[in-house]
Specification:
140 residues; mainly alpha; 2 domains; 6 helices; 7% strand; Secretory lipase; AB_hydrolase_fold
Amino acid sequence: MMVGRALQQGRDPHFRLGGLAPIAGPFDLSSFEAADIAKALPPTSAKLFTARFLDRVREPTGKLKELLTALDSTCDWKPAVPVRLHHAKGDQDVAYDNALYCQKRLRAHGATQTLTDAGDVDHNQTVRKALPLVVAGFAK
C-alpha cells in the first residue's frame, strides 16, 4: 500500500500504479493482537522494558512518531486503481482484522476495493492461495 501510494503521487518517474493486491498485510500495527501478545508477557511493562524506553514509546516524538504513524496510515488514501485485498481468517500470524481495518479505511476515502478471504489457512497458505487470484486480476 505504501509503494502504491508513492507511485500514485509520482515519486518515481519510470513506474506508474497499475493496480494493488495486498496479501495478509499488517495494516493496523498499533492495535492488532495486543491482547494476545500481552497474555504471554510479564505482568507489567516495567518488568520487560527500561523506564527510558517506556517513556519514549508512551509519548513518541520525532522520527519514531513519524514512522509509527506512517505504518498505521498505509490504507488512508484513495488509490486511482481498484484494490483487491487478500487475507485468511485462519491466519494466526497477521490477524484478519488488519484486512478489515484496511478495507474500512479505503472505503472511508472512497476507494474501489474488495476483500477476499482465503479461508481457514495459515499465513503462508494465504499467500499461496491468493497469488493465482492476484495474477488473474492483473491479467484482466
